[in-house]
Amino acid sequence: MVEVTIVCEGQTEETFVRAVLQEPLALAGVFVSARLINTSSSQRGGALNLDRVSRFIRDTLMQRADTYVSTFFDLYGLDASFGGVLQSRGQEPSKRATQVERELHEHIVGLAACRAERFVPHIQPHEFEALLFSDIDQLCSSEPEWLAHHEEFAVACAQAGGPEWINDSPYTAPSKRLDRLSPRYRKTQHGPDIALRIGLATICEQCPHFGQWYDRLLALPPL
């Protein structure tokens, strides 16, 4: 049996792990659980910086020696304290995410003094909402009024070269495009629901960086 704790950026990612990833991974013998970092006495998730994340992941790794730890953080808006964030500006999204993952892996393994294979970081380019652009039909059919945006979203995805390449400006990042919808896009409600309707196979095909992470989780051997 393989157990993986996925440290999530926020409640949307936490719900996605539980609603979308848990069952298919469990069928393959990989049992994942989602955890959020406490950012205050009453709030969990968000406000990520390297120091807070490092301490949480180190402590999680040290609780048991027979589990893996992964992450599900957005590249968009990731704090500059994370190694590679500033240095990779201007590179393509997947290369940026890979560089941040590599530097985070090196940092955490050194801090926790754990076996290197136990930490499997994932940084999503550009953000969770990119996954929802994997199937514009399913995205826009979630609310009848959203169908008016079908062509706009399809063009944006095609011009970018894929969902994970839709740019990360404060006006045109995937989540910013969805924030302008009416009725309002609700992250924790619409996000996991749309992802379920799209299906993991399509998401992994259309979002290769995410797909590579999912394949790594599937292939993890028992510790």
Query: Which outline best applies?
Result: globular
How do the helices and strands follow one another from N- to C-terminus?
EHEHEHEEHHHHHH
- What is Rg? 17 Å
Which structural category fits the helices and strands? alpha/beta
Summarize the amount of helix as a percent range: 40-55%
Please tell me the CATH architecture of the largest domain by its name: 3-Layer(aba) Sandwich
Largest sheet data: 5 strands, parallel
Mean pLDDT: 94
Task: Tell me the domain tally.
Answer: 2
- % residues in beta strands: 5-15%
How would you characterize this protein structure?
The protein is α/β, with parallel strands linked by helices. The chain folds into 2 domains: 140 residues, 3-Layer(aba) Sandwich (Rossmann fold); 75 residues, no CATH class. It is built from 9 helices and 5 strands. The protein is globular. The mean pLDDT is 94.
Task: Summarize it.
The protein is an alpha/beta fold.
Name the descriptors.
223 residues, alpha/beta, Rossmann fold, 2 domains, 9 helices, 5 strands
SSE order and pairing:
Blueprint: E1 2-8, H1 11-27, E2 30-36, H2 50-63, E3 68-74, H3 93-112, E4 119-120, E5 123-124, H4 136-140, H5 150-160, H6 174-179, H7 187-198, H8 200-206, H9 208-218
Parallel strand pairs: 1-2, 1-3, 3-4, 3-5
Helix pairs in contact: 1-7, 2-3, 8-9
